[in-house]
Specification:
Oligomer: heterodimer
Strand content of chain A: under 5%
Number of strands of chain A: 2
Largest sheet of chain B: 6 strands, mixed
Order of helices and strands of chain B: HEEEHEEHEHHHHEHEHEEHHH
Helix content of chain B: 40-55%
Shape of chain A: globular
Shape of chain B: globular
Structural class of chain A: mainly alpha
Order of helices and strands of chain A: HHHHHHHHHHHHHHHEEHHHHHHHH
Number of domains of chain A: 2
Number of domains of chain B: 2
Number of helices of chain A: 23
Radius of gyration of chain A: 26 Å
Strand order of the largest sheet of chain A: 1-2
Number of strands of chain B: 10
CATH topology of the largest domain in chain B: Rossmann fold
Radius of gyration of chain B: 20 Å
Strand content of chain B: 15-25%
Number of helices of chain B: 12
Structural class of chain B: alpha/beta
Largest sheet of chain A: 2 strands, antiparallel
CATH class of the largest domain in chain B: Alpha Beta
Distance between the termini of chain A: 47 Å
CATH architecture of the largest domain in chain B: 3-Layer(aba) Sandwich
Strand order of the largest sheet of chain B: 6-7-8-3-9-10
């Protein structure tokens, strides 16, 4: 396959060695343990096994809460020590990369780093929140506590955040003179060295504000839960913690992998994620099969090339790559509308074929329209990201190894808001209308839903993320070639969506991560007879296996899972290929 | 046929909600509706009956824009939109004007909850677009609240409040029919077309359903056009009845008239040709 990954330089690390030595063994042990646990769990539930320690485990949260809530001096001292140790580890974990990270003396060394004390503040603040909640739950007549007053909570949150910031970075006031915001380099006082600190400072503030607003939010949740019970399975606090944890892992974990995998994460997995999130809107939400999705990706990339003057036709003015992104989004959305309006009257297989044709048209145009796109030889260097504002200077290079991580963070800055936007879209009127059209178009239309409008909308919104992906990818790769936008890329993205679970954002992310990693693993892993050109075969195998063993995908959305069950019971169609259920009766 | 023309002349134009004039619908050589004329008064429960294949559902599909009849006009006198000829209008536009329908075979959105099913109907007329939905803009939040409350009201009206988080496909059959009615009502219709709402329900469910239809008609003032095979239900509910056979209106009038109409009896019981002649 000639996707964007074909331009990768040779591996900088012998990651085969790394994979085979620790990771794989670790994964196998983890998998076996997980399997054993699941079997065990099943047997306990079925009553085959009697477990006493299972009860003990389920009691842990209760006991823990009781422990934290208790006002005894000894408990408090234990908690303080625990908080200190945890804070030390977090501080070391989030600090700049050094050799022997997480080694015990390194961790102890963090005692000298004042960032640690900020973490301690946050941990204590969280524990206090738990304590207040537990107390208010235990006693009906709540004793008026100093910590219960709203103003104390807000003030506490603000102080915790400020304290954290100041602790983490004693030079904070100096840094805010803006002259310190240098983007690249490795000296100790540049922006990137410390930007995660600011991020977690912000999170600290958020924790405080949330604690302050907790009562209000709880009250609202009770009112809503009557009809929102289906959406909120976990409490708002748990969800917040999950989001924060996911963000933490997403930001911090790439610091621990070698440069080769950092590049892979950006170039393969990250771009796949963006593409798959967009295609998920079309396939998963709206139930339309789009096999020409790569066309929008190509349009994004060529838009960037055009505005940076890398094409034979020159733009009236060259603009910064950051400003190309909104233009690329518009171009991709417009292309989605242009493709959608005439074709979306078709359904099922016919639509798939037409979109396939559209993808091929763009590919052939890119290859043969030599005086516009430079043809198969590829364009000149497309614009990369740079910023030159008073106080903020940086230029990311697509070729420099140290910029891989920065590209990754740039990508993250796009993916995370898009995730939230699309998630709320799916749980809004628009998402429900898509579900309605997907399940029964005739019924949906009879309820006043303009099916064509919503389908075109799905095409346009889906296309928008691949416009972004096109710009980011071309900025990283430099020159772009028509072969980057061949049919296989479309197919790969479809496989990502199907493998991960149509309609499920989390599933699609998992699909991108796994298949992105898998393809990369195959490319440079020379086990017997493996040829990188066999990639399509492996993708096909994944697709077939998914279809046989788990057609709804790894992490299916609730709605989709339901549809698959219905399809088995002949209640409706589940795949996006099928025509709308039945004829008009 | 003579009965049908009688009623056309007696009804005054202004208090009609539907006026179907000489509608003919053909599929290739098959004529599904042949010169059908029909009127419904505002606030009336009108029933259309007829043997299988008489063209009742085809008529509904013409009224809701699913089919486009080759001849004739269908005037819809909406309180909000004035008089509109709905022939050739797309179904969603007709729905926005105030025509809602249910289907002969239950067409729920099976993978959605009861609550969501109804909410889709309620919010289809709202203005929130994709940008508002993505960014949680104030209008979107206000409209969400409004549709939540309206949905809860509708659930209560049809008596499904206790099932609001049930998936539509795990509802018992009778409840599904109720849900479909609630979903249609969610679009704020002026006229509600019910296509065999009692099909497949048991006698006690049928009674409850008839009660529900009457309540909806009385309390919300929605006109109801009903297709039904269960004669007892039709006779007890409908104020007037049209009888279709082979795509033509063969009789119309009060339930009592219809019951004693020889053509109707013949159409239903399949009386042989000569017997029909002797009856006349």
């Amino acid at each position: 396959m000639t996707g964007p990954e074909s331009d990768l330089s040779t591996p900088l690390y012998t990651f085969q060695h790394a994979l085979l030595s620790t990771h794989v063994v670790g994964f196998i042990i983890f998998g076996v343990a997980l399997g054993a646990f699941m079997v065990y769990n099943k047997k306990v539930r079925a009553g085959i096994l009697n477990s006493s320690w299972r009860k003990w485990i389920t009691a842990i949260p209760t006991n823990l809460r009781a422990f934290i809530a208790s006002s005894g001096l000894i408990q408090k001292a234990i908690l303080a020590v625990v908080a200190l140790v945890v804070a030390l580890f977090i501080a070391d974990f989030t600090g700049p990369y050094v050799a022997h990270k997480m080694a015990w003396n390194q961790v102890i060394g963090q005692l000298l780093h004042t960032r640690t004390y900020g973490y301690i503040a946050i941990i204590f603040w969280s524990l206090n929140t738990v304590r207040v909640r537990a107390q208010s739950r235990n006693s009906n007549a709540k004793a008026p506590s100093f910590f219960d007053a709203t103003w104390v909570k807000i003030l506490g949150g603000v102080l915790a955040g400020l304290f954290f910031a100041a602790c983490a970075d004693p030079w904070l006031p100096v840094r805010f003179s803006l002259s310190y915001f240098k983007w690249s380099g490795s000296s100790d006082d540049d922006f990137f060295h410390h930007w995660t600190t600011y991020l977690w400072t912000f999170c600290g503030l958020l924790v405080g504000v949330r604690a302050a607003l907790q009562d209000r939010m709880q009250r609202r949740a009770v009112v809503q839960s009557r009809w929102k019970a289906n959406h909120i399975k976990v409490s708002a606090n748990t969800r917040f913690a999950l989001y924060a944890g996911a963000l933490f892992i997403a930001v911090e974990s790439p610091k621990f992998i070698d440069a080769y995998w950092q590049e892979t994460i950006f170039q393969q997995i990250g771009i796949f994620c963006l593409l798959a999130i967009g295609l998920n809107v079309v396939i998963g939400f709206a139930g339309l099969l789009d096999l020409g999705y790569v066309a929008f990706y190509a349009l994004g990339a060529y838009t960037n090339a055009y505005f940076s003057g890398a094409l034979p036709i020159h733009p009236p003015f060259t603009i910064n790559t950051f400003f190309v992104i909104p233009i690329a989004i518009l171009v991709a959305m417009l292309a989605g509308v242009i493709l959608g309006l005439p074709t979306l009257r078709l359904s099922g297989d016919y639509l798939a074929i037409v979109t396939l044709g559209f993808g091929e048209i763009i590919y052939v145009l890119a290859s043969n329209l030599t005086n516009v796109t430079d043809g198969a030889g590829g364009t000149g260097t497309a614009g990369s990201f740079s910023m030159n504002l008073p106080g903020i200077h940086f230029a990311l290079s697509g070729f420099a190894i140290q910029d891989d991580l920065n590209f990754y963070y740039l990508l993250l800055a796009f993916i995370i808001p898009i995730l939230f936007f699309f998630n709320s879209l799916n749980h809004s009127k628009v998402g429900r209308s898509w579900a309605a059209i997907r399940e029964d178009e005739t019924a949906a239309r009879s309820l006043g839903i303009n099916a064509l409008k919503y389908k075109v909308m799905a095409f346009a919104i889906g296309a928008s993320t691949s416009g972004v992906a096109g710009v980011l990818s071309s900025a990283k790769l430099g020159a772009i070639f028509p072969s980057d936008f061949a049919l296989q890329v479309s197919i790969t993205v479809v496989v990502l969506v199907i493998f991960g679970g149509m309609g499920s954002i989390l599933g699609v992310l998992l699909g991108s991560a796994f298949i992105g990693w898998f393809l990369q693993y195959l490319t440079f892993h020379s086990f017997v007879g493996y040829n990188p050109a066999d990639k399509s075969m492996w993708l096909g195998a994944i697709l077939i296996l998914t279809m046989i063993f788990r057609p709804q995908g790894m992490i299916p959305s609730k709605r989709r899972m339901r549809e698959f069950k219905d399809a088995e019971a002949n209640l409706g169609t589940a795949d996006s290929l099928g025509s709308t259920t039945g004829g008009v009766t | 046929m003579s009965d049908a023309t009688d009623t056309t002349t007696t009804a005054t134009v202004t208090d009609n909600i539907f006026e179907v004039k000489n509608v003919t619908l053909r599929f290739g050589g098959v004529t599904s509706l042949n010169n059908v004329s029909l009127e419904q008064r505002r606030g009336e429960i009108l029933a259309v009956i007829g043997p299988n294949g008489a063209g009742k559902t085809s008529l509904f599909n013409c009224l809701t824009g699913v089919y486009r009849p080759q001849e004739g006009i269908i005037n819809f006198h909406a309180a909000s939109h004035g008089t509109v000829d709905i022939v050739g209008k797309p179904p969603h536009r007709i729905s926005h004007m105030g025509v809602a329908r249910t289907f002969q075979t239950s067409r729920m959105f099976n993978a959605l909850t009861t609550f969501e099913n109804i909410k889709i109907g309620v919010e289809s007329g709202q203005k929130t677009g994709p940008i508002g939905a993505m960014l949680h803009l104030p209008r979107m939040r206000r409209e969400e609240r409004e549709s939540d409350h309206r949905t809860l009201d509708l659930l209560e009206l049809v008596g499904l409040s206790h099932r609001l988080n049930t998936m539509a496909d795990s509802l018992p059959y009778g409840d599904r029919r109720r849900l479909e009615i609630a979903r249609a009502l969610g679009t704020n219709p002026e006229v509600l077309l019910l296509d065999e709402p009692a099909a497949g329900t048991n006698p006690s469910e049928k009674l409850a359903l008839a009660e529900l239809i009457r309540t909806i008609n009385k309390e919300t003032g929605v006109s109801i056009l009903l297709i039904e095979h269960d004669m007892r239900l039709v006779m007890s509910l409908a104020e007037r009845i049209y009888v279709l056979n082979f795509g033509q209106v063969i009789a119309s009038g009060e339930p009592a008239e219809i019951q004693s109409n020889a053509d109707v009896v013949a159409a239903y019981l399949g009386v042989s040709e000569d017997e029909v002649k002797t009856d006349e």
